Amino acid sequence: MPLRLGTQVITLKTRHPFVIARGGSSDYRVVWVRLADADGVEGWGEADPSAYYGETADTVLAALGKLEPHLPADPFDLEQAEARFAQLAPNSAAARAALSAALHDLVGKRLGQPLWRLWGLDPARAPRSSFTIALDTPERMREKVIEASSYPILKIKLGTDRDEEILKAIRDATDKPIRVDANAGWTRERAFRMLPVLRDFGVEFVEQPLPPRDLEGIAALRRQGVLPVIVDESCVVATDVPRVAGAADGINIKLAKCGSLREALRMVAAARAQGMLVMVGCMIESSLGITAAAHFTPLLDAADLDGAALTVNDPFRGATIEGGQICLPTEPGLGVRRR
Amino acid sequence: MPLRLGTQVITLKTRHPFVIARGGSSDYRVVWVRLADADGVEGWGEADPSAYYGETADTVLAALGKLEPHLPADPFDLEQAEARFAQLAPNSAAARAALSAALHDLVGKRLGQPLWRLWGLDPARAPRSSFTIALDTPERMREKVIEASSYPILKIKLGTDRDEEILKAIRDATDKPIRVDANAGWTRERAFRMLPVLRDFGVEFVEQPLPPRDLEGIAALRRQGVLPVIVDESCVVATDVPRVAGAADGINIKLAKCGSLREALRMVAAARAQGMLVMVGCMIESSLGITAAAHFTPLLDAADLDGAALTVNDPFRGATIEGGQICLPTEPGLGVRRR
What we know:
2 copies of one chain form a homodimer.
Chain A: E1 4-20, E2 23-36, E3 42-47, H1 57-67, H2 78-88, H3 93-111, H4 115-118, E4 131-133, H5 138-147, E5 154-157, H6 163-173, E6 178-181, H7 188-200, E7 203-207, H8 215-223, E8 229-231, H9 241-245, E9 250-253, H10 255-258, H11 261-273, E10 277-280, H12 287-294, E11 302-303, E12 316-317, E13 337-338
Parallel strand pairs in A: 4-5, 5-6, 6-7, 7-8, 8-9, 9-10, 10-11
Antiparallel strand pairs in A: 1-2, 2-3, 12-13
């Protein structure tokens, strides 16, 4: 009997409007995916579409409908299933990532093992996650820093014309480690000016300072030697890694970009082969989506998995980032339950 | 209770002396490694030392003795166990590969799943293996071609001063696909002369035409555009992949070089990220060593896993290459038994 697919759109609400350099919102429509086998065991996954990559909850549903006839007969047949999905729905990474997570969840549940254990990983090696302070007025960003008091590492979204003001407001409120994500919002000129400012504010590293295709500019920034430079939008899948290896110090993996858990592991391997730093990021997601990404964090240097912690109506319980430490579930598969 | 380590040296005998460009022998001492858990479940692995990489059965035993106190408490803790082994015994890849295989075998047996299935692979995608005709007189090589009648792809070891004569003798005896391994036995001048000759004899690709460090020469040969060039000795571990990516069309993975099953998978990912061909090779090994490598062949383009088929006293039964097709066991773990 083939796997049965169930889908449900969930509207996640964030505590504050989540604004980055490209704009933002308080409502995020994600898709909860369920794959049931003949014994009624269910694998769960979540699609967290990014408008930046051309996906919405509706395109996700359409892609899932297209992929449904191509689900594997056996959920263990992961390599071929994912390859088929990638061929049939190349531009639906979020949808594919949900199916990938659901298949992995099902395999783990069948074997009675948490995914990190099937992958041979030590959950104690999961890094701490940063917690994002989204764009706002300096005063409100300072308030958010206080709300985030339990998180030891902050991530600041910049790429505006008041970046220095924002940094100063946050530095006045805390001396915690800060990481900066410019979401491709700077020009070369501005980035060259900003990196020393970031360093002076004690920033640990900067993500995607320039537009994705400006690898030359990114490489020049890196040669400046001021701060480690991580690429996110410039590096979507594993075949992008060799191209960015000469330009950046590290990559930021996201399941909604790369489209599968196995591709994420391949990105880790490809980046490590280049001696690069590797981190994982997320969208606004429930704990279901976050947990899928959390399972491979023992392989990483850094994580930004605050997507569920930023919401007020997370329907799931899975990996947590309480106190900043990523804590992986010990239940089989993804180890995610309804709240 | 910690895992208990058992070791036993086995002397494999080849049907014919196995001679390559660097010399050869008929007797091969390998080490059978057993890891028993508290329930008496045993994971098996095999160390196939290569003198070229400075290992012998005796250095393997010494390395295993050194690593024994550092075995994981839990065989599932593969990532950290392998990392520890690599740190403690960096020059003992064959010894480490045996422990890696034994741990993977144990995990698979505990879960009741063959390793390929735990890795999400489809055994039907395993490629065919070539069968090696070792260096000998042209007449005896022709005899060996006849003995190898059940194998559809032949691999010829060259790198001598009578390469053309050997090729002609073999081509006179068969029209099967031929692959050539020069084992770093040519000079640049000779390699440039030989590649068009190989092409004219219908050779599919050439392995390691020049010394490992002559990547410039290898790149120049590749630019000649005559035949795909695969590197073996030039590419030992995943961090070598970016370095050889500009020089060669593909890599040949061997467990006795890279030291672990997980490193082999990382090499596949790193090479695929570069768009490279990937094959797997072997030493003279029993079916135990061959089977460990066979489990990841569904990810590969080509395989040369004839190490056990070349012996006359293989103590094990596992993956087979009958008729050239790699056939993966369906039993849990590696799926290897005593004959």
